[in-house]
Design a protein that fits this description.
Blueprint lengths: L7 E7 L2 E7 L8 H15 L6 E6 L4 E3 L4 H4 L5 H20 L4 E5 L2 E3 L1 H8 L2 E5 L4 E2 L13 H8 L1 H9 L7 H7 L4 E3 L2 H16 L3 H11 L6 H15 L3 H13 L1
Parallel strand pairs: 2-3, 3-5, 4-6, 5-7, 6-8, 7-9
Antiparallel strand pairs: 1-2
Helix pairs in contact: 1-3, 3-4, 3-10, 4-5, 5-6
Length: 256
């Protein structure tokens, strides 16, 4: 019998490079506890004087992040519970944008829904050719309301709208790079990790004050996200308990 893998969120620092990592056995899907831990960990890393640059990564090799945990979506009974769950994504994205340090994204595999939002919220994102993307929310009876501001900021309205409407099909890593979500795409994880580390080392030796001011400048205009993203979470919370969503989730439970 295969041993069940325990989910985790970790933060460690080596040579002024902070590594934030999370993992769940379900393709790195995100339950409420992981979302809360991740937001808290990013805030901790943001205030840690020992790190100058951060790397966001997930465990495993096949999936970067499958978005919201379907197991927890099945348990949501009312709008308030739904709002609280999706507020977890809002808290993570807001923690990332307000973090004064550059966050380098390491996307080793598929990113779906909230996973695309995480990749978009990084300041510079590396990926492999296996890192295709999909916004699957409409297929669940909701929409990418919380993550779309971060995604639209990176790839524009047209490309974000395309992803939101065609919710059942993946776009390739090459497509994501062309649109600006990924800065660099590599054939192997090893090649990607080498590039991530090289940039992280360079940034760790760079001016802290200059990096803070650069990040602040490029995130100007997002200050209202403290109000916007929780409001978007409320929309998802309302829709996840409607009949369409319940029907899809019931079908999903039967497939399981």
């Amino acid at each position: 019998m295969q041993q069940k893998q325990t989910p985790y969120t970790r933060y460690q620092v080596q040579h002024h490079i902070g590594i934030v990592e999370f993992f769940t056995a379900q393709h790195n899907s995100m339950p409420a506890a992981i979302l809360a831990d991740l937001a808290k960990t990013i805030n901790t890393a943001a205030n840690d004087p020992n790190s100058k640059v951060l790397i966001l990564k997930t465990g495993g090799e096949k999936s970067f992040c499958a978005g919201a945990s379907f197991d927890e979506l099945l348990l949501i009974q009312n709008e308030e519970e739904g709002r609280a769950f999706f507020s977890g994504f809002a808290n993570v994205i807001n923690a990332m944008r307000k973090c004064p340090k550059f966050i380098l994204g390491r996307v080793q595999g598929k990113a779906i829904g909230g996973g695309v939002g995480l990749a978009a919220s990084c300041d510079y994102t590396f990926a492999t050719t296996e890192a295709s993307i999909k916004l699957s929310e409409l297929a669940v009876g909701i929409g990418p309301f919380v993550v779309s501001p971060a995604i639209e900021r990176k790839i524009g309205t047209s490309a974000t709208y395309e992803l939101a409407i065609d919710a059942c099909n993946f776009r390739t890593a090459a497509w994501a790079k062309e649109k600006g979500l990924y800065a660099e795409v590599f054939n192997t994880i090893e090649e990607m990790d080498k590039a991530v580390l090289e940039l992280a080392i360079t940034l760790a030796a760079s001016s802290t004050e200059a990096m803070i001011e650069i990040k602040k400048t490029f995130w100007t205009g997002t200050e209202h996200w403290d109000q916007l993203l929780p409001a978007r979470a409320a929309i998802s919370g309302r829709l996840i308990v409607n009949e369409d969503a319940k029907s899809y989730l019931a079908s999903f439970k039967k497939w399981k």
